Amino acid sequence: MTKQQFMARLKAKLKGLPKKDVEERLSFYGEMIDDRIESGLSEEEALSEVGSADEVAAEIIGEMATSAALKEKVENKKLSAWQIILLALGSPLWISLLIAGLAVIISVYAVIWTLTAALWVVELPFLIFAFISKYLFIGCKYTTRGALYLTRQCLSFIKSTFK
Amino acid sequence: MDIQLKRGLLDICVLAAIKNEDSYGYKIIKDMKPYIEMSESTLYTILKRLELSGMLTVRTSEHDGRLRKYYHITKAGLGRLEDFKDEWREVMLIYQFVTKEDSAK
After folding, report:
1. Total number of domains constituting chain B
2. Among B10, B83, B5, B84, which residue's Cα sits nearest to residue B45?
3. What is the reported pTM?
4. How many Å apart are CA B18 and CA B8, to the nearest integer?
5. Contact call for A56 and B41, based on CB within 8 A
6. ipTM for this prediction
7. Residue B24 contacts A where some CB pair is shorter than 8 Å
8. Helix, strand, coil in percent for chain B, rounding step 5
9. DSSP, res A88
10. SS3 for B67?
11. Where is average pLDDT lowest: A103-112, A130-139, A154-163, B44-53?
12. Burial class (CB in 10 A: 0-12, 13-18, 19+), B55
């Protein structure tokens, strides 16, 4: 491998990093290689002392990750404050909202059944007058059937979410 | 050597390598080699850190038809080396404490 190949490979490996930083590092390594050659090493020897482009890139990225991790450690206080806020406000809020939502659904469901029951109660006194009651009876029947259908649909939906 | 301990010492060694005269990357590594070894990427990180904290300044100058960066120690850098000497006396006291048991045997 020549110095040029080394530099090209290193540049490609550091592609994701900030451009200015990459340029600076590349010129640093270029200087290191040139100085080794100047001190009497061959290009090949100089490159083997510096290490392969892949190794160097891994080292650079590793070092950047370490300094980033150290920075994060310093900023940890800020992060945990946010976590506290999220835990204190966010989580119980969502749980109570979820409970409220479920309560609304259940109450709507209860209303449907109450309506059905009321229709049946109203129908009872008219039982004697078969003619009038006939139509009311149909109403009762279909409401009940509708409510039962709704129940079945809901149950199968709940079942499917747990599958 | 323990990584944590070495990390702290490397900064001092780099400052010591440019204490008497301005130096450049490869020379710093070469001068330090008999005492402590470091990779190029470590040296780069240390030089950057020392520059940002005002311990050294960088100048680029031409050498043999190419550019080379020279590092110059600042007053703050020299002060840091002086502090290290004092700190090391404390470290030596700790060393004595650590090895006390051994000599008593």
Report:
1. 1
2. B10
3. 0.60
4. 17
5. yes
6. 0.84
7. yes
8. 65, 15, 20
9. I
10. strand
11. A130-139
12. buried
